[in-house]
């Protein structure tokens, strides 16, 4: 398995993985499938913001999964905190693609000097929760019944990984 930065020719595969997750998993809390144009806009926005998009591919060059991170929230006080996502093809689940993608995202977030990486996980997804725990993520909270899909309420587990011991950035004072 090889990891590399995603390129625009990867977008159809990324779209297929994303839309499969929308249709079959409680991991993406929407019923709306995306178009290739939607994924292109997402891709360009992530790249313009300086955020990574990586893919795992097999020996034939087929994309097995993708991962990325971006801002947790838009306010400046959250600028050192990123939220990540990892999705893999149905046939790749449980075979290590998600593991290597998560490991790479943690590595990149440290290199980019972010302070915290957050995973927001469907609480029933015990496999993903265990994977995150193996990489040092801690359960920071559970939000009961904050989403719904497939005719049921969904709980959200928030997991955090503190990436470094950096001091807090200096305070910024606004002119009034």
From TrEMBL:
Keywords: Acyltransferase, Transferase
Domain N-acetyltransferase, chain residue ranges per copy: 1-159
Gene3D superfamilies linked to this entry: 3.40.630.30
Family matches, as InterPro entries: Acyl_CoA_acyltransferase, GNAT_dom
Pfam families (UniProt xref): Acetyltransf_1 (PF00583)
PROSITE patterns for the chain: GNAT
SUPFAM superfamilies registered for this protein in UniProt: Acyl-CoA N-acyltransferases (Nat)
UniProt xrefs under PANTHER family: N-ACETYLTRANSFERASE, UPF0039 PROTEIN C11D3.02C
Protein's name according to its UniProt entry: Phosphinothricin acetyltransferase
Organism: Pseudovibrio ascidiaceicola
């Amino acid at each position: 398995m090889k990891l590399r930065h995603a390129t625009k020719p990867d977008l159809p595969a990324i779209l297929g993985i994303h839309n499969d997750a929308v249709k079959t998993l409680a991991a993406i809390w929407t019923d709306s499938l995306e178009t290739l144009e939607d994924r292109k806009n997402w891709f360009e926005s992530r790249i313009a913001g300086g955020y990574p998009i990586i893919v795992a591919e097999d020996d034939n060059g087929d994309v097995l999964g993708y991962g990325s991170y971006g801002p947790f929230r838009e306010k400046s006080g959250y600028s050192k905190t990123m939220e990540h996502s990892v999705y893999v093809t149905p046939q790749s689940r449980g075979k290590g693609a998600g593991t290597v993608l998560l490991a790479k995202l943690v590595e990149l977030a440290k290199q980019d000097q972010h302070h915290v990486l957050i995973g927001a996980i469907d609480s029933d997804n015990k496999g993903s929760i265990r994977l995150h725990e193996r990489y040092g993520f801690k359960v920071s909270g559970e939000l009961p019944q904050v989403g719904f899909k497939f005719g049921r309420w969904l709980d959200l587990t928030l997991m955090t990984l503190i990436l470094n011991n950096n001091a807090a950035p200096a305070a910024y004072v606004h002119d009034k």
